[in-house]
Amino acid sequence: MTSPPCIRTQRLAFRYDEEIPALNGIDVEISENAYLAIVGQNGSGKTTLAKHFNGLLRPTSGRVWVYGIDTATVTVGELARTVGYIFQNPDHQIFCASTREEIAFGPRNLGLCPAEVSARTEEALRAFNLLDYADIPPAVLGFGLRRLVSVAAVYAMRPRILILDEPTTGLDWRSACELMALVDQLHAQGHTIVLITHDMRLVAEYCKEMLVMYDGRVVAYGTTREVFRQIEDLRQAQIRPPQITELGRRLAKWGFGDVLSVSEFCESYARIREEHR
Predict the structure, then answer these.
(1) pLDDT value of position 63
(2) Which of 29-33, 172-176, 201-205 is predicted with the least confidence, judged by mean pLDDT?
(3) Which residues of 18-34 are buried (b: 16+ CB within 10 A; e: fewer)?
(4) How many CB atoms lie within 10 A of CB 273?
(5) Residue ranges of the alpha helices (H) in the chain?
(6) Span(s) in the chain for CATH 3.40.50.300
């Protein structure tokens, strides 16, 4: 880790019932301003782990700290000031009569004065290009816009950590790229970003770090490039690297090596071609 952890877990275990453990002794540290992907198959424990970071779930045993505060000692509302959670389905968050009211709801519940609530709401509407929809009920907007509203509503609360559960599910590639460009901006502003996703192309192109879960355990954790080299760990977790990464690996003897995106592949090709002129 290059900076102090903003989230740390120690022997974290959780059970939804007595028979099946969902988490088995998780020890992880997440650095401040990390850009982390948590990946794994359905039932691997990735969402269960992330919900411990904002107190939606409490450990069966073990401990979780957020900026040094034991999450067992504070309420979900208190943690929401620091950790924002955007659910996979935006309809699980949206309920207000207008987009403006939806975005204002969180800051208002933080106890902020009306002027600050209004300022944050207007800023979020501008940042996410939602001004044209400010007075429209978010429930009638298209899925991509509802996704933006759900992210903007959490952004307006100014949490230092943002967790996005399958943020691009249901979006076409253009809409997904537009959303991830906004997430990139939030990371550049200093936010810690945690993505829960099945999309390995998304992980390779955007995330700096990668945590792989299988059967309630962490089987790999490191930089995205390092983890994609751990073939056996990925195979155990039933995770396949992006096709362009696999192609680069197959062409390693010609000088391609580790590539995470099409642009990296093209750069490698241009370099190799120049070297052989």
Answers:
(1) 97
(2) 172-176
(3) eeebbbeebebebbbbb
(4) 9
(5) 46-51, 76-79, 99-109, 114-127, 143-155, 173-188, 200-206, 224-229, 231-236, 243-250, 262-275
(6) 5-239
What is the rounded distance in angstroms from the CA atom of residue 145 to the CA atom of residue 150? 9
CATH superfamily of 5-239: P-loop containing nucleotide triphosphate hydrolases (3.40.50.300)
CA nearest 164: which of 141, 186, 138, 131?
Answer: 186
CB atoms within 10 A of CB 85: 23
CA 91 from chain centre, in angstroms, equals 18
Q: Which two tokens stand for residue 170?
A: 């249901």
Percent of the chain with pLDDT over 70: 99
- The type of residue at 149 is V
Residue count (the chain) = 277
- Report how far residue 137's alpha carbon sits from residue 145's, in angstroms, rounded to the nearest whole number: 11
Determine what percent of the chain is predicted with pLDDT higher than 90.
80
Identify the pLDDT of residue 2.
56
CA-to-CA distance for 273 and 236, rounded, in angstroms?
36
- Range from 36-45, 124-133, 164-173 carrying the lowest mean pLDDT: 164-173
Number of alpha carbons in the 13 Å side-chain half-sphere of residue 13: 11
Q: Report residue 3's pLDDT band, with 50, 70 and 90 as the boundaries.
A: low
Phi then psi for 214, rounded to 5 degrees?
-150, 125
* 133 burial type by CB count under 10 A (0-12 exposed, 13-18 middle, 19+ buried): buried
pLDDT digits (tens, 9 = 90+) for 131-162: 999 999 999 999 989 999 999 999 999 999 99
